[in-house]
Amino acid sequence: MFSLAELAVRFGCEVHGDPETRVNAVGTLQTAGEGCITFLANPAYKKHLETTKASAVILASQNIDASPVACLVTNDPYATYAAVATELHPPAALRPGVHPRAVVDPSVKVPASCEIGAGAVLGENVELGERVCVGPNTVIGDDSVLGNDTRLMANVTLYHNVRIGERCLLHSGVVVGADGFGIAQTASGWRKVPQVGGVTIGNDVEIGAASTVDRGAIDDTCIGNGVKLDNLTQVGHNVVVGEHTVMAAQSGIAGSTTVGARCVIGGRAAISGHLTVCDDVYLLGRASVSRSISTPGAYSSVLPVEEAGKWRKLAARFKRLDEMAKKIRDLERNSE
Amino acid sequence: MFSLAELAVRFGCEVHGDPETRVNAVGTLQTAGEGCITFLANPAYKKHLETTKASAVILASQNIDASPVACLVTNDPYATYAAVATELHPPAALRPGVHPRAVVDPSVKVPASCEIGAGAVLGENVELGERVCVGPNTVIGDDSVLGNDTRLMANVTLYHNVRIGERCLLHSGVVVGADGFGIAQTASGWRKVPQVGGVTIGNDVEIGAASTVDRGAIDDTCIGNGVKLDNLTQVGHNVVVGEHTVMAAQSGIAGSTTVGARCVIGGRAAISGHLTVCDDVYLLGRASVSRSISTPGAYSSVLPVEEAGKWRKLAARFKRLDEMAKKIRDLERNSE
Amino acid sequence: MFSLAELAVRFGCEVHGDPETRVNAVGTLQTAGEGCITFLANPAYKKHLETTKASAVILASQNIDASPVACLVTNDPYATYAAVATELHPPAALRPGVHPRAVVDPSVKVPASCEIGAGAVLGENVELGERVCVGPNTVIGDDSVLGNDTRLMANVTLYHNVRIGERCLLHSGVVVGADGFGIAQTASGWRKVPQVGGVTIGNDVEIGAASTVDRGAIDDTCIGNGVKLDNLTQVGHNVVVGEHTVMAAQSGIAGSTTVGARCVIGGRAAISGHLTVCDDVYLLGRASVSRSISTPGAYSSVLPVEEAGKWRKLAARFKRLDEMAKKIRDLERNSE
Predict the structure, then answer these.
(1) In the prediction, which pLDDT does B335 show?
(2) CB B39 within 8 A of CB B50
(3) What's the rounded mean pLDDT across residues A205-233?
(4) Among residues A127, B274, C98, C245, which is most buried (max CB within 10 A)?
(5) What is the pTM of this model?
(6) Under a CB-based contact definition with an 8 Å cutoff, are residues C171 and C150 in contact?
(7) ipTM of this complex
(8) Structural domains in chain A?
(9) Is the pLDDT of residue B336 over 90?
(10) Which residue of A has its CA nearest to B187?
């Protein structure tokens, strides 16, 4: 339970309304009730502000007058909400100890502050920092390293030689360090190219459920500090992802591509292999990158849906673009 | 072993040919043999009807004459086939009991009718209905609830506070309740937004292998009764999926979007976040939705493949569409 | 440790420079050091050749002069590199035996040459060839069969009746044999169609992390010898994938489609259901196939990204293609 006054001091906001208003949980503008604090960041939701039943709202100063309840006023309501919500709903506390049904190789030293779940399997020479959490049925390959406060949820798989920094969070189904897609064509079919590199992941990285990050073919695949990957994303072998870059669900980066810092890769966007994408590139959802990008900015390549009948006509026209261009040229010649 | 007469009575069909024809398994038109029943629903396969070696065929009345064998005649051969096949090939019977290598928190009451597989891990206060099946190495987080007759196959992961109705089937690799992709930009990088909602899934829902359904940021992510998700689909946080909507493989719905009832979302189709899609929308495969849809109907946005050389020309023309439009305008002016 | 002379004999190359040069590891042109052998295959990397610190380089004869160090000269540097790298970095040796924490049904005979990891669960009548490796927490359903030298990494799931040939490698998170997406529409919603077929996988197949291969509806889903699937790929029920076909990450084949031999399916490419794609088809990344292909060759359907503002204009022009075509027709009439 916190008062708005306490939260305002802690997170550098101003209070509008009663500073003794007390909150103990978060809610949405539409569904929050007594004791809840909510926020307004996306203008599309402003219509719900005047009817909110929350006890308090985090918002920007221009929206104060529309609020029926007490406010925490800040320049960045969403970031402030993130901080307040973390205060009210901290991550579940660790339950330190090694579950008797975990299987930990004798070579591994498990600090007393770590939690190792039932069915977890830790290979030879795995190194664990303080307060590491390894979820139930998660498997960690030989010689992998997890920094302080890193958490692997249930059913995660790390192969051997995967190095992960501090305060990372890997969700269930994630696979880090599987072989990259290295195959060489021969007369008798495809020959596997051994994938002898590892994976290096920085600090404060989050990887969404069922995402895959392949090990390097020779050198490591590298993910920088502060990177956030959503679910079902794919990072190919030898890829380098710069610091604070984020990838939304089902996006992917093919092998040997380097992506800069602070990029935002929209959902389902795809970057081909052996390319370089500079810092501060924003790919809209489903964008398809097949050449290197050297200029920061927003990029797109997707045609939005049309009613299917109309779309069929447009697709047919598209197929005749070449003819159309020739007709225009003929017309131009005739009109000269 | 059933006679056609029995099946006809049970499923409301007519028999054409010998009603005492007996069948004990299903087969395809091409490969079925003695004792097999097959079906004809897709006209593309009608060419295989006259040479079928099946003992009987389920088909619509207009195809009776083309059948060399006995028939079950029905308006909807595929739905009737589904019913007949379920009769001939019922799901494997449960093997009730808790495997000695399962790890069940002492707070959990496991009904005697349930099957809990080897290596399964059930957290605190998990609630199980009757005849629930939890596959080997599946992990269920604290306070989650499974209704009667729900089955989780092997290596499924449910986080905490996931509520699933009755008669659901979740395939291997599915992850329900991982954190949604909630991150707020700050001067020092992305800050995680706690994901404090849960997931609510209705009755008769099937979720395909390696699909991911995120927990809500504040309120629950909700999947309605009768929804069917194929493999590798992504449902973001706070998404609402209406009853009887289906999503084919590798499709996805981004966070906070509401999709209506009875929609059909084709393979690889994608819907952006914070949108509303009304009931009865049919998205063709790979359609890309970036605005709300308020009119039922079919929608498309994909250009089909062309031979690569031809495609390169079309793509180049596309890039010059603006010029082309200007040339037309000039021509129009000149011709006035 | 091998000399270039030994490698040249073994792999049919010529040596340029000192044949007694000794190497014990692989490296990249940029990062290899003393004792490392590297290769030059992609011309984009030739710029790094002259400054390499490797002890030797595998390359084609036209690049000999640019090499500052000893060379193995071959027509196909990448395939030769694959062979040399396998020699220098052989796969980890098996640790034969059944881990005491594995759960093997009493009906299963485990050859002494096999390795069964901690937490692995093998169902009834599973058949294992020699030197099979089953990783930790991997689950194998009843009646499945694994040929000699096949390896399943950690956290793989095979359902029942999955038959896998020899020398296959399935990565973590892979699910083989889950139910295909067979549902029939009825007045009361979608009805599940039992999936009674199995999966048959040939020899020398590799399946990337978190990929899914569904069991057949009636007959088996079939994957031919030498097929290689990258991560997060989807193979629907009843699909047939021809020998030596490869599928890059996040690609997918919908149900009942037959793909020929030696096809290359680029990253994120998608093939609709009930189609036939002939041998030797190359789909560029993200290509979308919605009709059968009967002519070998390369196919594409993706528009590359543009700066977002420019793209918006092009997309708007695209939407008016029909109007544009009409204007051209009018102009043509006027100019006649």
Answers:
(1) 78
(2) no
(3) 98
(4) C245
(5) 0.97
(6) no
(7) 0.96
(8) 2-88 (3.40.1390.10), 156-302 (2.160.10.10), 307-336 (no CATH)
(9) no
(10) A79
